[in-house]
Amino acid sequence: MSITTKKGSVYWLDDTPGSQGASVDNGKLNHPVLVLGAVNAGIVQVLLITSFNNQSLSTRFPKPGDTRRRKRYLPLRGGPGADAPHPDNGLLLSIITTGQPAMLSRQSFVNLEPFTVEVCHLSYLHRSSTCILPSDMLDLVIEKLREFKPNFTAYQERSLPPSRPRTQQQSARPHPRPVPQPQPRPVPQIQPPPTTRPATIPPARPATIPPARPATIPPTRPAAIPAAIPAVRLPPPPHTQQRPLPVPPQPREPSSYYSATTARQSPWGPDLERNAQPPQPSSYYTWNRQEDDHDDDPSSDCSLWLDISKYMAIAATVFLSVRYFFR
């Protein structure tokens, strides 16, 4: 529930799930707070009010070196027995109350460490009671606060500018408002197009053509012309003796008085008469047998060697030709 806060008033900071999730220390929840200024975007500046479990400042900070820590707290005037002044500077803040606030039944102190809280987390004091600091007491609190935080400034309420009072004559007959006359529309002036600077085209750089490299033609190897094969002179054919052609034997007429008879077969040749001599072998067989048996003619040996030389020359010629073409 949102309330309307007032500068210098005391409110209760509730301990709710919403306030626990806010950026407020859990030790400050469920305590009364003093509002220092106006509301700014739903947020107010406050000071915590604590009682130290009904202890005095001298009991809470008994050491001599705790003077600065004691200066951070200002006591509030409460009920009977709760009106002890500050042990160092003797200050005691008076407060205006309505009803019977429970916080005044003990000695309470204002902590001079400001923090901000949303207004929705604040509520009124119990029993419909109120606690308000006078303006001079609130100014004293802010003065002591600036000893620790010199740049502190309380939120101020937005004030409207003062309105000018209207006279009776002005309220009775207001001045007519002047009717604005239409202004002639200015004719736009056509500006000449800006002169463009002609683009400077750099001269084309001649292409560098590398000199043509002459093609290297390997020297041709002259074809080897084979040497002319010397003509082989063939020896004249040897003179051979004309061999007489064999003369076949002529059939003989039968000499008997039997004219139509046939002579019996003889192993020596054609039919012969009885008691007749066999014919002699021809000169052809006789000559061959004599030549084979008696090889005494030197011309035959010479012709044999000539034939062998001729065939060897032909073989050498063929060999050289094949080697030349297939190398």
List keywords for this structure.
327 residues, 7-stranded antiparallel sheet, alpha+beta
Describe the fold and architecture:
- Among the domains are: 10-145, Roll (SH3 type barrels); 297-327.
- The radius of gyration is 80 Å and the shape is elongated.
- The protein has 327 residues and is an alpha+beta fold.
- Strands 1, 2, 3, 4, 6, 7 and 8 form a seven-stranded antiparallel beta sheet that branches.
- Mean pLDDT is 75; it is low at 256-263 and 283-295.
- It is built from seven helices and nine strands.
- Residues 222-232 have a biased composition (Low complexity).
- Residues 153-300 are annotated as: Disordered.
- Residues 177-221, 233-252 have a biased composition (Pro residues).
- Residues 256-265 have a biased composition (Polar residues).
Q: What does this entry show, briefly?
A:
With 327 residues, the protein is an alpha+beta fold. The chain is built from 7 helices and 9 strands; from the N terminus they run βαββααββββββαααα.
Number of strands: 9
Shape: elongated
CATH topology of the domain at 10-145: SH3 type barrels
Low-confidence stretches: 256-263, 283-295
Distance separating the two termini: 120 Å
- The share of residues in extended strands comes to 5-15%
The topology string of helices and strands comes to EHEEHHEEEEEEHHHH
Question: Taking all residues together, what is the mean pLDDT?
Answer: 75
| Helix share bin | 10-25%
> Based on helices, strands and strand pairing, what is the structural class?
alpha+beta
Per CATH, which architecture of the domain at 10-145?
A: Roll
* Biggest β-sheet description: 7 strands, antiparallel
CATH top level label of the domain at 10-145: Mainly Beta
Radius of gyration: 80 Å
Number of helices: 7
